[in-house]
Amino acid sequence: MCVALATLAVAAFLPANPAGAPDARAAAGVTSVSFLEIDLMATLNSFRRSRGLRPFRSSPRLHAAAARHSAEMARWGYFEHASPNGAAFWRRIAAYYPEAGFRRWTVGENLEYGQPELEAVEVLEDWLASPPHRANVVSTRFRDAGIGVVFVASGAGVFDGLPTTIVTLDLGSRSRY
């Protein structure tokens, strides 16, 4: 049995550029889980294609934002969209996926954490079971996606010292028109 929690956020406006973003270097014991990132992107896109939706494009910029956030949550022992300094999620994403030069800019985020054996299909099923998460997964508004997954052997704070896998999905769309 897999224990997992998920949360969602969406922003759609022209924010100011963020300042003073915290360092994203992971603490000792926090490792990237790239095979799950790849598997989850394939699983999301397979689901989208089966519903007649365009697949998400993999965005290195959104991947960097998602990876940073997952590592920060692991390092600081929290599970929230806001950064440890209190900055809104869209400010963190904008540092990697800037809105400058675009007329339209929108971003969204899904989060999840669970036990070490967390699999892509479990993450997708959890997000689909939650109407706001499902809305992000099936949205035609978002075109780009980045996934950051980390594992921590002994999670601090809300992770109660347990081995934990943390997933961040950052979504975005930008248009000059």
Structure, explained:
With 177 residues, the chain is of the alpha+beta class. The protein is built from 5 helices and 6 strands, in the order ββαβααβααββ. Strands 1, 2, 3, 4, 5 and 6 form a 6-stranded mixed β-sheet that branches. The N and C termini lie far apart (47 Å).
Key features?
5 helices, 33% helix, alpha+beta, 177 residues, globular, six-stranded mixed beta sheet
Number of continuous helical runs: 5
Q: What form results from the Cα inertia axes?
A: globular
What average pLDDT do the residues reach? 86
Helix content: 25-40%
Total number of strands: 6
Q: From the structure provided, what is the oligomeric state, counting identical versus distinct chains?
A: single chain
Uncertain runs: 1-27
Query: Radius of gyration, Cα only, in angstroms?
Result: 15 Å
Structural class from helices and strands? Answer: alpha+beta
Distance between the termini: 47 Å
Most strands sheet: 6 strands, mixed
Range of strand content: 25-35%
Helix-strand string: EEHEHHEHHEE
Put the structure in a nutshell:
With 177 residues, the chain is of the alpha+beta class.
Secondary structure elements and their pairing?
Elements: E1 4-12, E2 30-32, H1 34-50, E3 57-58, H2 60-76, H3 89-96, E4 104-114, H4 120-128, H5 131-138, E5 144-152, E6 164-175
Parallel strand pairs: 3-5
Antiparallel strand pairs: 1-4, 2-5, 4-6, 5-6
Helix pairs in contact: 1-4, 2-3
